[in-house]
Structures are given as structure tokens and as C-alpha cells.
Amino acid sequence: MYSTPIIIDNSGLTGVIINNLQQDINDVRNIAQGKTRGLVFNTVQEVEEWLLSAENVASLNIGDVFLIRDLDVPDYWWDGSTKQLLETQKTEISTITDTEIDELFNEEIIS
Prior knowledge:
By secondary structure, the protein is α+β, with helices and mostly antiparallel strands. It folds into two domains: 1-35; 36-105, no CATH class. It contains four helices and four strands. The radius of gyration is 17 Å and the shape is globular. It starts with 12 loop residues before the first helix and ends in a 6-residue tail after the last helix.
């Protein structure tokens, strides 16, 4: 995922590659500093529908988490191009209010 090769030549690609590398560094920094957000959905289908919007996808950062209220399905995270399985144990959030989740992640609730 962060394996941008560094090519030094006279073809003009060096600036593009350095910019890509800088973006990779910023993505890693944001994850390490906790600058990701959690988006809460009732079902995986809601996530899929939400991801159909180019505007929604453009708002995502690498490391953002899709929390699914349904306990029978896993949660997911955004890798920069697609949702990935979040390989952690599910946490029961049905007793947590939307406001509490919003305050925890300081982000919006999608439902």
C-alpha cells in the first residue's frame, strides 16, 4: 500500500512520485495521530449505498472506519480505494446512543 518507488530521472516524473510519497506519509501520520473518523451504519448494505456517491468517497481518508450496528457482520475500514475487513472483535454498540458515538468519534452518524 505504501510502496511508492522513488525514480530519479529527467523524465519529469520525479515531482509526481515525490508528491505521491508525501501523500503516503501524510496518510500514515493521520492514522498515527488518530485523525481518522468512524462512520456508523445500521447494515453493510447502507455502507455500500453510501459508497456509491463519489462525493462521499472523496470525503474519506485512509483509516476511516465503517462501524456496523448489526453484530452478525464485521466492521470495515477504508484503505484509500475500497473498504477492507476490520480484523477486530465486534463491540456491542446497540446500548450506545448516536450522540455518544458522535462524541466518541467527533463525527457524523450515518443512518
